[in-house]
Every structure is written in C-alpha cells, then in structure tokens.
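Two entries, shown back to back:
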Amino acid sequence: MLEITLEFRKGILFVRLQGELTRKTIPILQAEVTDTILKNGIQNIVFNLEQLKNIDMKGMSALLYHYEICKSRKGKSYICNISSELLHMKLKKNHILNYLQEMDNELTILHAVI
C-alpha cells in the first residue's frame, strides 16, 4: 500500500511517500500527485522517501515522469531522506539520481531553492 502526504510551501510541492511505490500503487500516485501538479501548474517537486519501504521499475518510472513534467515547466525535482541503502542503490543503479537531485532533507532543499 502507498500513503501520500502533500504540502505546498514556498513554491515547492513536498510529496512524502510511505509504504511501497510499485506497479500496484502507481494509480494512487497519479491520482494524488500527478493531478495536483497538472491542475495547479506546479514547477518544483520534492519526493521525501523517508518512509518508503520498496520501489520497483514502474515506481522509478513514475518518479522520472514527474521529473519530466517539472522540467517541461522549467522547474526542478528533488529527492530526499532515502530511507535505506537498498533503496539508494536501486535508485542509483537505475540512474534516477542523475535526474532528481538528491539532498539530505526537506529543509536543505528549502534553503537551496529560496
């Protein structure tokens, strides 16, 4: 299962993911996050993975999709608080970290963007 918490602060949409981002949970991400971005013209997004337990290839593709949306709007995409070394290795191996800028936490990103 996937739970998502959204918070919009200083022109950035913070997306906190809890659970698993997999083929089965992508529709939840699309319904909550993608629709919010598209309807509100959001440019900058942060994925906080502190509570994420697992991600598969479809989940990583979904992160890249959101990166592409933000890039097309001249915005930035970030990833922070990667919860485990295994998740970090998956993201690195699949080159996700070449696109979404990795930072330690939300506060660091907030200070870097402002």
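entry 2 starts here
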Amino acid sequence: MHNAFRSKLPLLLTFCLFTSFFPASGSVLCPAVASDEYYKIARNYGRNGRTGTDGREGRDGGSGENQNIFVNGSPVNLDLSGKDGEDGEDGRDGDKPDCGSQRDNVNHDINAPNGGNGGKGGNGGNAGSPIVYYSNLADLRNISVRATAGEGGRGGRGGNGTEGCNCQRRSWEVKTCKGTPGSPDYKCTDKVYRCSDGSDGTDGSDGKDGSQGRLGTLSIVNSKEPLAADTPTVKLAISELTNKQFNLSKNKWNLRKGATSLLAPGSAIADDYREFEQRLEEAFQIVWQERQPITSFGNQVVTLNLNDNKQVEATFAEDLWVEGNTQSQTNLTTFTVNHAIPKKDVTRLAVAEFADAGQNLNLKIVDLAAKSDTLNTQFRVKFRAQDSLRGFSDYKTEYEGDIPNELVTRDYNRFTLALGKLKIPDEALHPGVNVDIEVVATRSLGIRSAKQTISWQGAIRKPR
C-alpha cells in the first residue's frame, strides 16, 4: 500500500463509516476493504454485559421409611415423616457492560443482559407407609403414627439485571453530496443521526418452590403372617413365551376411609387406607398357531398383567398386530395366537394394473406383504376425470365414496376394484379421458386398524 494512501486511510474510513452505516442516495463509493474494516470497528464498539447464571436447584428431601408392624396390644410410636426439600440458590446478577468510549458519529446500541434465574426449590420427601398386621382390630388404637409429608424448599431469588450504557453523544449531522462540484447536478443533503441508549437488563425470575411430598398410607392385614411379595406384571420378549408357563401374583386390597380413627389419637397420616382382601395367583401360557414361527418375532415385547378379577391380560407392542382368543381354567389363562402381523406389513398395497374402459374399467391392487387372507380390507375411492377432447383443463370429481363389497373381488393377494360399475357418468369412462384416482384402504385385524392412501394418474386406454 502506498504511503500517501495509508496516511489518508483513517479519513477514508471515517467517511465510509457515514455512508456505509447510514446509506443515502448518491453516496461516495468506498473500497470494499475500507467498508469491511469500518463494519468490524462499529460492531466491536463497547462490550455487552454477560447474563447472570441460574442458581442451583435445591436437593429433594428424603422419603420416610416403609415399615411392617405386628401389633399385640403394646403401645407403638412411629415417625415415618418425609424430610423437607432444600431451598434453591439465588441466581447470580448479570455483569455490567463495558461501555468504552463512543466513537464520533456512530449509531450503536449497547444492551445489558438479564440477571440469572433463581434455582428451583427441592421437592419435599414422601412419608413412609406402614403395613400393620393384627388379630384384634382394636389393638391399632395403641399405635401412634406420624407420617407427614416433607415441605418443598423455597425457590431462589432471581439475579438483578444491570444498566445499559448511555450515549455520550446523542445526535450528529452528516452531509452527503452527489454529482460533480460546479455542475448543475451537484447536490448536497444533510441528515441527522441519533444514538440510542442501551436497554437495561431485566431481572431474572425467581425459582419455583418445590412441591410438597405425599402423606403416608396405612395398610392393614388381618393376619400374623407377612404377605408374600407380589408380581402382578411381567415384561418379556415374545420368543420367551413359547412352551412356558409364567406365574403372576397380586395382593388385592380394598380402599377405605378413616385411617386416623383406627390409630391412636393425634396420628398424622392420609385419611384413605388399604385393607387386605385376598391374594390372587394365576399362571399364563401362550399357544402359538400363527404360520410364522414365534422366533421370527423374537424382539417384540409382551406385557402380562394380572388384574383384580384374576384375569391375565397380554398386551403386545404397537408395531405388532396380534389376533387371538383367551381361555381360563383353574389358575391358568391360555392365550391362543391365531395371527401375528408386523404393522409395517399392513400398509404395503400398490397399484398393479389399470385396465379396460367403460363399465369394464377396473383398478387392480396387489398386497406386497401377502397378508390379505388375514386382514380385513375396505376401500374408498375418489374418482376425478379430465376430458381433453372437449377442452376441459380442470379435473372434476365424478365419484367419491366407499366401494361396495360386491364390486371388490380378491384373488389371494390381488384385489380388483370394478370402478366402471360405480355411479360414474359414461363420458368419464371413455378411452382417452385423463383420470386422477385416490384410493383409501382401511385394513384391520381385531381391534387395530390402519389406513393407506394409494394414488394413480393416467389416461383410460382402449381395451385390447
């Protein structure tokens, strides 16, 4: 770079600063390097303050301990209360911005940030729940239970936002000229520019208080023997069900009200309590009659659940459609699987052929997954036609509705839809007519169903 140009560069940059940042018609053209250097200088004026950090959340309170109690008439005092959650920490204030020194004739806002948000308070701990075994219900009056819930911690306070920078010079005037000095087209205009103060950062929001824990729940059992653990639900891969029985068990309870009336005065516990009714035990076995071997569905998850009616319900994954029937015998539920189809194989229909014309016009659809002997399939069609011979440019809907079952024939995995037998005007079925056909197939197995839309466009051809 020549020394003469280098000495004039600051002046050139200053002039380009005006014309680049505040464009006006007829501005003097500045070299790209000067414009770029100005932009970097202008954008780096001062430094924004940093946002304050959020306060740490408070830790949750510990839960009370569940306990088994065998009463014999002697007084018992139990404290199963949950612990309080910790308070959240306060958020940190935002850092102040570095306003620096404002350059002449620059319009540049400096915005201070928000303060940090306060931390959420910890949740209160749940109270423990006692299971009381008794022979004489009146003996429960000698048991004092305190099973209160822990209080939630308080949320931390939000940090304070800091003040934005103020302009050191609020307005200035810049003259811009165009044309050649001394000529009639030479004109100059004055324009006023202003500097706006940076906005103040807003204060951070306060953290939420933690939620209160749950009260303990009383359970009573008229027995001297402790209840066996129950296994009401089992999840496993479908391949694990073959040639095996699975035992499920469940302790059935009745819900009652008035827990504190059973215990010593001053006891603190939830009003609802559970009274043991009976133990349910049931075995489950699957009988596989689907043509595909059960091992081909090996990773599919099955959930077995024993309900209060002593029935075992088998729930299969959403992406596996199963149809079968349940049979219950003494302490054994048998589920026979007649059909099992992966969901992805349900909607694999495709157009195979569009043939003939007039009342013989038909659309053939093939099931690529070959599951049509198992699935129930219903069709709905929207038939639109365009007669190019008569100059019609738009498609007109000639029929929209379900296709009656008698107009659908199935040969193994191939469906033939007799479109020409629908109530469609004859002129829309002639050879040469362009048609747009949309078929919606609804396929179902048991309680599950899915829809697939199949589209076809083309001209009706002359029969061979």
